[in-house]
Fold this sequence. Notes:
Blueprint: E1 4-12, E2 22-29, E3 34-39, H1 48-54, H2 58-61, H3 67-77, E4 82-86, H4 89-103, E5 112-115, H5 116-123
Parallel strand pairs: 1-4, 4-5
Antiparallel strand pairs: 1-2, 2-3
Amino acid sequence: MAPRAIFYDTETTGVRSEKDRIIEIAAYDPLNELTFERLVNPGMPIPAEATAIHHISDDMVADAPGFDVIAKELCEFCQGDVVLIAHNNDGFDYHFLKAEFGRNGMELPQWKFFDTLKWARRYRKDLPRH
């Protein structure tokens, strides 16, 4: 049986997973028609340049839980044999998930991952920006 697909995305304080933090994570399970969306308090200010892109401000995450709480909720949402799918997963989202789990003394679950950007570049050369 094929793993259950879960589409996900992250928003962050910047682009460097070793120093920046996740401030929002969202996921969709089309099989069960379930959604997961949580703001995350990054424990650091959100740079204005990042807020200009995703429109998430310090005020919005001030009362949000830290990643340690959100990680447990995400693991519950992604129980079982799943594949997490994101656009630019291999270049961005996966690295942030791995870094955040590690910073919180947790191991990233043995989820499978799929990068739709990589797929588009390989199979849809007719799409100029993929």
